[in-house]
Amino acid sequence: MKIKNFSAPTMAQAMALVKEELGDEAVIISSTKDKDGNFNITAAIEEDEIRFDLEDKAEVVSRKVSFNDAHIRESLEYHGVLDMVAGRILANVRRISSEQRIYDDKALLEQSLSGLFGYSDVLDLQNPFKMFMGVPGSGKSTAIAKVATQAKLKGIRSCIISTDNVRAGANKQLEAFANILETDFLFCKGERALYETSRKAGEVYPLVLIDTPGINPFQKEEVEKLSALSEVVKSEMILTMDAGKNTCEAVEIADVFADIGVKHLLPTRLDLTRRIGALLSVANCCGLSFCAASVSSKIAQGLARIDNKSLAELILA
């Protein structure tokens, strides 16, 4: 219904305005005379029915909603993620929210991480050789035992080769695990021995796990020795790293191992830390893919896979 007011010096003139504007079908709702002597008329008319042709298409206009990234931003700050990496994650989150009209923090974070982080499987057998590296005490030996156990549970035959001639205790521990798993434990001293041993093991076992001595990545001589070992076998190199490390220090350490050829990251002691900023920063800055994570002191159930969903849950928890 269309309603309009008219005013004129006389009633006849006011009615003429109504007829001219609204036509003969107009209905007079009210008429009054003001103090100046003018006649005021309020008139109305039913508007024409709106019709749609079958070929017409309605245009859908989405209501603009502004996404608030405060919770994700605060979570990244809590975990101690490097500003550069946090900025990349937040930029991805805002872009995805704008393009796909997604406003849920967890869903956005999952999609954002998929474009910034890589994931692999430590039991992928395309390359049977897995060489584990890290600083002393990073959990290499325990990680290898857990991987060997996972392989056993999945029916994958594996053997363990140690090149660590520094820590006799670590070798004894790995040998004990190998005996329990009924697999071979082999010890090599030097590049030539590793070449011969790994070549023969590769002919028998679909999975060969190689332990290396823990090194100080800031000592050039130790890095060079490890690099020489890594060149003997064309293996997938895996960095084991304590999840609770200082972020900046962790990135500096990982950068050295990345220069040697490390492509994968296996966080250890993930169950003992609440902040994973170091892991996120290392993986993104050094281009390392998450291949698994040590999440328990138990050997049999001690490894878990990492993906976008689990990372997003850890960040927002």
Please describe the topology of this protein.
Layout: E1 2-8, H1 11-22, E2 27-33, E3 39-45, H2 70-79, H3 83-100, H4 105-114, E4 118-119, E5 129-133, H5 140-153, E6 158-162, H6 168-180, E7 185-187, H7 191-204, E8 207-211, H8 220-230, E9 236-242, H9 247-260, E10 264-268, H10 277-286, E11 289-290, E12 293-294, E13 303-304, H11 308-316
Parallel strand pairs: 4-11, 5-8, 5-9, 6-7, 6-8, 9-10, 10-11
Antiparallel strand pairs: 1-3, 2-3, 12-13
Helix pairs in contact: 3-4, 4-11, 5-6, 9-10
Task: Provide an overview of this structure.
It is a single chain. The strands form three sheets. This protein has an eight-stranded parallel β-sheet, sandwiched between helices. Strand 2 and strand 3 form a beta hairpin. The mean pLDDT is 89. The protein has three domains: 2-45, Alpha-Beta Plaits (2-Layer Sandwich); 70-114, no CATH class; 118-316, Rossmann fold. It contains eleven helices and 13 strands. The chain has 317 residues and is α/β, with parallel strands linked by helices. Helix 3 (83-100) crosses helix 4, helix 5 runs parallel beside helix 6 (168-180) and helix 9 (247-260) packs parallel to helix 10 (277-286). It is 43% helix and 19% strand. 39% of the residues are buried. It has helices at 11-22, 70-79, 83-100, 105-114, 140-153, 168-180, 191-204, 220-230, 247-260, 277-286, 308-316; strands at residues 2-8, 27-33, 39-45, 118-119, 129-133, 158-162, 185-187, 207-211, 236-242, 264-268, 289-290, 293-294, 303-304.
